[in-house]
Structure formats: structure tokens, C-alpha cells
Amino acid sequence: MNTALAAKNALIDLNQRLVEQYTAKHPIADIVKHRSQFVDSLLTQAWQDFALLSDALALVAVGGYGRGELHPHSDIDLLFLISDEPLSAELESQLSQFITYLWDTGLEIGHSVRTVAQTIEQGKLDITIATNLIEARLLTGNEHLFDLLYDNIRQHDFWPSYDFYNAKKDEQSNRHSKASAFDLEPNIKTCPGGLRDIQTIAWVAMRHFDAATLEELVEHDFLAPAELEELLECQNFLWEIRFALHITANRNENRLLFDLQRQIASLLGYEDATQLAVEQMMKRYYRTVRRVMELNQMLLQLFKRATLGHTQALEIQPINNQFQRRGRYIEVLDDELFTRANEEILRLFLMIAKNSNIQDIYAPTLRLLRNARRGLTAPLQDNPACRKVLMEILKHPRGIEALSFMHKHGILSSYLPAWRKIEGQMQFDLFHAYTVDEHTHRLLLNIERFSQAEQKDEFPLGAILINQLPKKGLLVLGAIFHDIAKGRGGDHSKLGSKDAIDFCKLHGMNDHDGRLVAWLVENHLVMSVTAQRRDISDPEVVAEFADKVHDTIHLSYLYCLTVADICATNEKTWNNWKASLLRDLYFSTQRVLARGKEKPVDVKARVNEIQAKAKKELIRRGLKEKDMDALWSRFKNDYFLRHQPNQVAWHAEAILKHNNDEPIVLMSKHTTRGGTELFIYSKDKPKLFATVMTVLDNKNINVHDANIMTSKDNFALDTFVILEQDGEPIIQLSRIQSIRKALEKALASENPKLPKFRKLARIMKPFNVATHVSFLPSARHGTSMMELITLDTPGLLAKVGDTFYRCNVTLLAAKITTIGERAEDFFILQTQSGAALDEQQQQQLSDALILALKSAN
Questions:
Q1: Distance set, CA 366 to CA 297, 360, 379, 560, 599 (Å)
Q2: CA gap 433, 422 in Å, rounded
Q3: Range 158-168 burial, b when 16+ CB lie within 10 A, else e
Q4: How far apart (Å, rounded) are the C-alpha atoms in residues 769 and 72?
Q5: Please, what sign has the CA dihedral across residues 232, 234, 240, 244?
Q6: Average of pLDDT values for 637-655?
Q7: Which of 662, 661, 733, 722 lies closest to 693, judged by CA?
Q8: What is the pLDDT of residue 199?
Q9: Residue 310 pLDDT greater than 60, yes or no
């Protein structure tokens, strides 16, 4: 008898040979079948070695193993089929030893022991078991038992075709609801467009036709030869990824985890170029799953319509001489229409825009559309008739609905060659959760949401502005082109702007509209950067932004594009904090544009105004005016200019009611700009900022904004806007108390024992963001503005604050922005003597920061 160790070594040797075949580009279908055949022989030999030759037993492969497909760490699903008589004690013992032996060889065994009757009964109750049984294959043992099972499975009452179809369709819908095809770490087996979607097509058809392979479905006229070829091509690519995933992870892993993607891309032969190797691989992956999704939708609908004969009579409503509505579907009336007149391809989608009752494309029409798409020899935009129809779509109120369907079915890329280049284009980072084309598609849907009544609470300003835009179609075009040049190298905003100009000229648009679209594309990031990374309470910052915007029309277009863009980047990006920043910047800029030019701020008058409003509130609360005056005489003018009267009153009341010099830590009950305001009043001391940042980091708090100030008598007056990790304000009382106590304890101690920083999360480990420090012109006299780009690691701001202290640099304000794995933070700094940093001091600080953050990267 072969020992389990010998069998285990044989499997290891086999895997090594298969890896060598894989890297030598042997067909993946042959490789997965080879492994299945090897396991067949191993099990058959072991069956004989354990003398399991009784007529009471049959060994049956089910599931993926039943199909004869095994990846390096795939489960081996087995059914031990037994006769109706109970097994003898000796046979039970032998069977137990056999299963133990298989585990000892290293095989991942999933097994069940049942009679034929029990198997059929379980299969009728559970669609997953029934599906596994459809692919059952006898390995060895009693053939009669297996034949009996085989015959029972094919009886009409064991999952009739229509019931089986509905069950698998429901199963698929449930699976799709739990994941996106465009996840950053997709499950290549279960996500939409993954291997399960290919198998679902096969299962429902094989159940009906009693076919053993996909190839047989062509003989039954269910699949066209070209569709079979496409399905197999997609399946083989997904198999190649799955095989590489198993050998890289060394386990049965089906998720394309970030920390494995680079290695898998290398195994598949991709190399870094203009695009990273991993981005090239993922681009093909996302394109593949989109193809599978379309085939899956079409073939399952065709199967239900043409094969099962259970489709209900759908109401037919004529649209024109070319199209009709069949229930909720649009249907073409002439099979040659799309190939005879290409503009009719576009007209199909125009009809979708014009008829809100149409929700999808009828499967036979989709098949014709796919064939016409494949037969195109030039971009559709080269055809003047096509251009005319597209402009109708752009001008229609429901044009985005049509564009969404065009994207889904590959017609946008057939129309616009530049769109084809971004299909499936991913960016290997944690910020961009979707491919470039899918991100743009979601941006378009967000623009559509602005017009929906139910979205007014989430987008109150967008809901107003979208209806005030002179031409909504210009915003749509700006959205389509804003990222269309990504992945080419160079500034995608400028390259995309040129593409937009060329498009507008080709489509006969006037120069004014073309320039506006191009301006939107070139400047689509400006409002976001200004709001999130600049001090928008500074009039000079707002005035500079107003100069770029020109007028309120451009401002309104840019606001709508910016909000829709941020919301489409990933599900966690948009929050009340960003909404508040953008809204404040919009209205501040609108005021500047209305005046023509911002008037200089009268500092003294502004300070008096803020103090007067705060005094009014404090007197109402019972505080004395002389106490306020005494307190505020210690504060510099900058404090009042950078706070609202209600904030000044809140701070003053707490300080005046505090009877000693112990630190004060306040957290607002009401949110400030969508976040929770944290105010710290304490005797200023070395590393105060670093201490606060360390405590907040260990409480898993995100810091978004910091105003660091010192009174004339050296007390810190520091204000922070903080949020939970999910972007929500901190409102739970116990959470607030915990943060306050931790900060009070750390600030009260001369040498606080601070907790260690959190560990770097798994998903962050594949990234290596080089630390980059740059100094920018500062709008505030006597200050320096510094930008820091680095990996977002635990304790980052604490390390930065410590470095400022060691370099004798004073921090005045900070804007903290996390973009996926990247921290892009802005700091306003000055020397301890109150001057801007000179070149030598800037270089010293830059070198110190790069050294301090080197270990984190």
C-alpha cells in the first residue's frame, strides 16, 4: 500500500510540474484536467489498497471535481454511495480509514455517505446538492448503484427544468447582491461575471438538454459557435488567474487580494510599462467579467424564452417602424437593421431614453446588437448619422439612462475610441474603488440623482443647481471626458480636455459650449483640491479660486461635476465634512464673483463684530463682560478671524468656568462642517500636537482639519475637526467621554506614557508610497505652506508633529486628506520667531520628515 506520505509527496511533485506547465503557457484547460485525472488515479488506487471492493459501495466525484476540473487547492467533493443495507462494521472501519488517509495526503476532502434514496431526497430539498449531483461522475465501485442514481437524477420530478432555472436564477441574484463585479479585491468565483456565472449558464442548459459539456449546447442550437468561443475564452482566463491565485496564496483562495495581485500578474507574464503589470492584468479581468455578465444575461433570458416555453404573454406596444416594446423590453423588428444602418444602433438607445417603460433589451435583440457590434470596422462617431443621434441622446432629459445602457453593452466604446482605452482600467490603490469607465458611469448616474426628488436631502445644493444649468448635456460631456485620458501617461486633465475639444468640433457644437466642456475637464479637480487641501476661510484663497472659475455659470457646472465625481470614487469618500466644505466654498466664491472683487478685510472691525456676537450669547448665559474682555485680551486677532462667534462663546464659557490651569478638552455636541469639533486649551508645551495625534490615532479617529494657535501668554488654543473611520461625526456619549479622558490624561502628564501605534492593516502592506515634501507659495504673510505625500500609516501625524518639534518649526494649521493608501496633507508653518521658513530650513525639515517616515514605508 502507498503510504499517505508517499501520496502527499506525489501530489506536491504533481503541483510543481503543473506550475512549470503553467509558466510554459500550456493550455489551462489541460492543466486543470490533468490534476483531476491524477487525483482520479490516486483515489482509485487507494480504493483498491483499502479493499473497498464491496458491491455495497460506489465512489462518486461531484461538483467541480465531477466536472473533471481541479485547481491546486480546490476541494475534492466526494459522494460515497451505499446500498440500502447498513454497512458492516468492518466496511465502516475501512471507509473511515480511507477518508483519514485522504486527509493525510493533503487533499481537501468534502464528503457525504448516503444511499441513492437519501441522495435524491437531499437533492430535491437543496438546489446546491442537486447542482453537484448533475455533474456526478463514477470513479470506482458499484456501477449499478451509480446508474440508479444517474437515472433518478434525470427523472422529470427531480428538479424540472423550469424550477431548476428559477432556483439557479434566484441563487445568482442573491449572490450578485452581495458583491460588485468591480470590487478592488474581487472574488473571481462568486462575483458578478465570475466563474459561477459561466457555470450557471451551463447548469441550466445541461439540466434541460442532458448535455455533459458546453460544446454540446451548440449542437442543441442553444449557443452560437462564436458565443461558445467567447465563453471558453473568458473561462480559460479566469482559470489562469485562479490557478495562479491558488499557488501564490498556497490555499484555496478565490479572492484577488491586493497583497497577491502583483505576484499573480507576474505569473501571468505581465510587465510594468506605461501601466503597471497588475493594472494590465486587472484591466483584462474587468473586461472579461463584463463580457461574462452580458452573455449570462442574454443566454439565460434566451433559455427561458425559447426553451422552457414558460414566458408569459408580454404586452406588445409599437414604437415606430424599427422598434417595439415587448413588456419591459425593447425589441427590434428587422434582424438586419443594425448592420444595414449603423445609426439604428444609437437609435435603439434613444428609444430607451424616450420611453421610461423600457427597462432592458430583449435577448434576441441583444444577440443582434452583439453581432453588429462585432462587425463594426470603424468607430460609430465617424458616421455623421450616428453623430446626429448621439447629440439627440445628450440633449434628452433621460439621456444618461441611454448612456448607461450604451456603457453596459459596449456601445460607448464602439462609438468613442478613447472610451475603449479606459474600459477595465483600474488604478492600483485603495482610493479608486472602480475601474475608470465604471467610475465615470457612476458619476453620470450621480448627476441624474441630483434631479430626483428623493435625493434632495443628500444633495440639497446639487438639486437646485442641476435645474439652473443652461445645458445639462455639457455637464454630461464634461463627465464623460474628465478621466478619459487616464492610463496614457501625462496630465490626464489636459489630455482629456483636448479630446473634449476635438469631440465638440466633430459634433458641430459651438465654440462657447466646446470651451466650457474642455474647461470642466481640465479643471475637474480644482474645486475638490481647494476645498479639502486649502484654507478656505482665507479670503485670498477664495479670491484665487474665483479667478479660475470666471463666473457663476462655470462655478455651478464645476460644483455639480465635483460632487458627482467624489461620490463616484468609492462608497466611503463622500461625507458631511466634504459636503460642507464644498458648499462653503461655493457660496464664498459666489459672493466674490457677485462683488466683482473681494474687498480687503478690516481686521479690527471683523474682530469687534465676532466678539460682540459672542458676548451677547455669553451675557445671556450669566457671564460677566469684564471677564470676557480680560480673557480675550490674551488672544491674538488671528484666533477671532478663524472662528465663528458661537465657537468663540463655547470656548470662552469653558475657560472662564475652569478654575485651574489643568488642560481643557471640549468636544462639540453639534457637528462643525460635518465633523465633530475638538478644542484643546492647555499650557503650550513641546510635542503637544504629536501627543494629541497619538491619542486620536489609537482611538481610531480620523483628523481632517487642525487650527493650531497660541495665546499671548503661551496657552494652546487648538481646534480640530475629527470623524469616525466611516466618515461620520462622533456622537456616542461613551465614545466622547473615552476620547476626552485619554486626552486629558496625556496632556496633564509631563512625560505621558502613550500607547503604541496600531499595526499596519493587511490591505495596506502591498503599497509603497514614496514620501514627498514640497513647499508652495503661502497666501498668509510670514508663513510657509508645505505639502506632504506619503503612505497613510498608523501614527503618521504624531511622527510629523514630533519632527516639527525637533526642527524648531511651529505648526499653525493643517488640512489632512487621506486618498486610499496615500496621505496628502497640507501644513501652514513658521519658525519659532514667527517668520517663513527659508530654503535651508525647508530642506532640513524635508530631510527630517523623509527619514522619520522611511521606516513606515
A1: 10, 10, 19, 34, 61
A2: 15
A3: bbebeebbbbb
A4: 34
A5: negative
A6: 89
A7: 722
A8: 95
A9: no
Chain mean pLDDT for the chain: 90
Mean pLDDT for the stretch of residues 431-439: 86
Hey, what's the cell of 93? 472501519
Name residue 678's beta-bridge partners.
Answer: 667, 720
| Separation of CA 565 from chain center | 13
End-to-end CA distance of the chain: 53
63: left (phi over 0), alpha (psi -120 to 50) or beta: left
Among candidate residues 287, 123, 307, the one with its CA nearest the CA of residue 221: 307
Beta bridge pairs of residue 247: none
Report which listed range, 544-553, 666-675, 824-833, is most confident.
544-553
In terms of Cα–Cα distance, which of 809, 817, 816, 800 is closest to 853?
800
Task: Write the CB contacts of 744 (distance below 8 Å, at least 6 apart in sequence).
Answer: 662, 663, 665
Q: Which of 110, 299, 339 is nearest to 202 (CA)?
A: 299
- For residue 123, give Cα distances in angstroms to 116, 153, 167, 176, 211: 10, 9, 13, 24, 19
The predicted pLDDT at position 598 comes to 43
Q: How far apart are CA 32 and CA 36, in angstroms?
A: 6
Measure the CA–CA gap between 474 and 511, rounded to whole angstroms: 12
How high is the pLDDT of residue 304? 84
Can you give the pLDDT at residue 180? 85
Q: Quick one: cell of 168?
A: 439557479
In whole angstroms, give the CA distance from residue 809 to residue 838.
12
Contact 289, 191 (CB under 8 A): yes
> In terms of pTM, does the model score above 0.90?
no
Each residue of 74-112: pLDDT tens digit?
A: 999 999 999 877 888 888 899 999 999 999 999 989 999
pLDDT tier for residue 397 given thresholds of 50, 70 and 90 = very high
Sheet of 329-332, strand order: 316-318, 323-326, 329-332, 360-361
